[in-house]
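Our collaborator T.R. sent over the components below with a one-line note: 'Predict the complex.' Nothing else. No constraints on interfaces, no templates requested, no preferences about which chain binds where. So this is a plain run: every listed entity goes in together, and whatever single assembly comes back becomes the starting point for the next discussion.
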Amino acid sequence: MIIDLLVQGGQMALVLALAPLLTGVVRKVKARLLRRRGAPVLQPYRDLFRLLRKEAVIAENASWLFRVTPYLVFATTWVAAALVPTFATGLMFSWTADLIALIALLASARFFLALAGMDIGTAFGGIGSSREMMIASLAEPAMLLIVFTLALVAGSTQLSTIAGYMMSPAVGLRVSLGLALIALIMVAIAENARIPVDNPSTHLELTMVHEAMVLEYSGRHLAMIEFAASLKLLLYVSLIACLFAPWGLTVSGGGLAAYALGAVTYLAKLLVAGGMLALFETSIAKMRVFRVSDFLGAALMLGLLATLLLFVSRSL
Amino acid sequence: MIGTATALLAGVAGLFVTAVAAVLLARRAATTRLIYSAALGLSLFLLAIVGRHLLIQPPAVSVLTLPVGLPWIGAHFRIDSLAAFFLVVVNLGGAAASLYGLGYGRHEPAPHRVLPFYPAFLAGMNLVVLADDAFTFLLSWEFMSLTSWALVVVHHRVADNTRAAYVYLVMASFGTLTLLLAFGLLAGPEGGYAFDAIRAAAHPPPLAALVLGLMLVGAGSKAGLVPLHVWLPLAHPAAPSHVSALMSGVMTKVAIYGFIRIVFDLLNAPSWWSSMVVLALGGATALLGVLYALMQHDLKRLLAYHTVENIGIIFIGLGLTLAFQANDMGWAAALAMTAALFHVLNHSLFKSLLFFGAGAVLTATGERNMEHLGGLIHRLRYTAVAFLIGCAAISALPPLNGFVSEWLTFQAILQSPQLPQWGLKFLVPAVGALLALSAALAAACFVKAFGVTFLGRPRSPAAAEAKEVDRLSLAAMFVLAALCMLAGVLPGLVIDALAPVTDALLAARMPAQASQSWLTIVPIASGQSSYSGALVLVFIVVSASLMAVAIHRFASRRLRRAPAWGCGFPDVGPQAQYTASSFAQPIRRVFGTLVFQARETVEMPPPGDNSPARFEVSVRDLIWDGLYAPVANSVDFAARHLNRLQFLTIRRYLSMVFAALVTLLLVLAIWP
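Returned assembly:
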């Protein structure tokens, strides 16, 4: 009981501590691939602290919703990230929200962020919100179909149970899981506003989606939102890791050594995932906004196909 | 102690008396307050009686026969667990609408056209749910349709309202006609019109399928099932806002009640393929409803189209119930039906709330068109909070109630691979995808509705000078918002309250949720899936306040107001904001080119020319063009040509009578 509580608390602190690091690693690797030296890996932490120290400048007609949204977005993302097994399964509160609820929590964060984008009443906020909701309207159902696939394979929508099942030898190689993995990666790219769907480091307003939506934020509010974005990236990486690469995950009741091993493998997984993301992003160009629907439509179809296969036969 | 049915009928009689009083006192100034207070009191009274009935253990059935109606049959009334649940939905909505009407009704320009029909409409909806024989049911159904029609034509001088009322009247008569046929088939040649007799009779499968089809048309047209939904987005917004709330939030649920009563209670012999029809219609309704809603920029019409989507979600749940029931999977059927009924309750709560909010916006600004609104969060501070809760609830965001019922529906879909039929195996995942798509699009739709109406800068002087509405309207909205929160945080209570209904209809129930720790709901088994709205709420609140405290302790607390960033351009004014149509543009490009044949044309003047550029969007309603327009055109054509018969001479009429007689006799002679 005590250990479970500690693991849950440790997990909540761990995701907070590691999220900016992952962003830093991705940026660093990307810079190195472009033969630049790049900012230090710890730069995102410094950015966050710098933003926290600055005064917040908000637009004249911003409402209370604009000021509350960063906290809501951060809180929902944090709760969601705390429920994904990172280094150990059997989290104490994993039964609070299953995978479907987890996606809905992220949808809540997006809902409020999109509203905040429309609060100021400039065209940039509107363009960002509108495009973000268009992307979400395809990414979210694709994600739900991936959840269906996983739930049908493991017989449960609970993340801990699914991760446990994925570690067991009963899984084997399945066509449906392969399709789900590809779809999940596509959704993760879109959800985290990475190239080719969106460009996190763009500075041209018209090409931005996520960044246009949060254009009016500054100071501590912007820090919260940037932090939430890093958390979301970490969440998706942890999700893919615990579902499709569950090696090294500590099952509940393991000893201290097991937990240490779990933490080390988790760190290794983060580094590998960050490197792969950077490699992918540097090797592909950003697409036009209306090509995104084709990209995500493909993810949706893959998810549907995977679910259909499982309806046809549970062993596919 | 008086029986429940008697007490309920007394309450309904009270509503009728109120309606008559409204006619008699039409010209008095205090009538509005009097009538809505009476309606509020009687709705609460009916709610209390149903509540008392629900507390009786084990669940009881109360019947009453009145010597009115058809001779030697009488009028039968009955309250069982299903009727009790729907009475709660009807009277909760009725009480909230009456409370709202107390404030909102003061702005009504023609109160004498609203007040008599309002209590009568409430009485009609109660009677449909209470009816226990075909005659009483049809009579109450028609009464409900006609009173609501009268409320739709209240503002008959407003353009399009008479057309809306006309379309509604045609569709309602058509729906009742199919219900009449369905009951005729159920009663059989002996004419057993009491529901008890119908329940006892055996119905052969072809007849059961025919009745189910007729019910889908009859109840489906009232509920707004695609393609029978066309009247709904015309008629619901035309009525005064609290009546719109009742029509969208409650009357569509009465139609669902009719469907459940006949298909699951009276018929009770579903074949598996009938579930495919219901599922396919439900999935199509859900997706098309939300896409239509996204294309609207009239706030009330957007809400009305969104009702269509929610009806689709409810029918998906009912279709799954049929599929599971036909395959003897009682536990899954109970889960699917609980999901559908939970959504019935949820939708009645948040749709009423949103229509109240739209009514408040209408009172404050006189505008329904979102393109003329904006920035209302600064002017209507409390309405904005209530409307935001409603938007979040209908977009299925945790920890509110809309999420719970969608979550339960998803859980029911995940049980369906065990269905043996191949048709269902292929259809159910597709319906699941449609449901997921419509859930995501609903969030986009309500970001648009709230964002364009309440956020940004005002787009018209009316929006800039809006004033907050009265306290009673606000109270009605906040009561419903609180109920949305409550049903989302304590879903176990609702699920347990629904258990007697599924017990009575399907002889199966979901596991009891009251015994679960931490207010968790567990639909099947604890290892499979669980969700705790209360804990999610606690986690979000705790982590948000932790962060807020940390920020305010350690970070800079300075705040400065400055002009918004406009790329260095001077401020171009609120007209440069994103509008409702521009918000929907990406989604219109992605989905609308196929579904609505949406076309955009841009006319740019040549360089140097000062004439304005033009941008036009054309959206076609393929269902109207493909299904209704041909029927309307052929009726028109026939009417035009048959009109000649009106102006014949006596001699010609006589010869026509003679010819008709001869033809009839010939037919009789040749008939084998």
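Summary for T.R.: Residues 625-670 of chain B form one domain.
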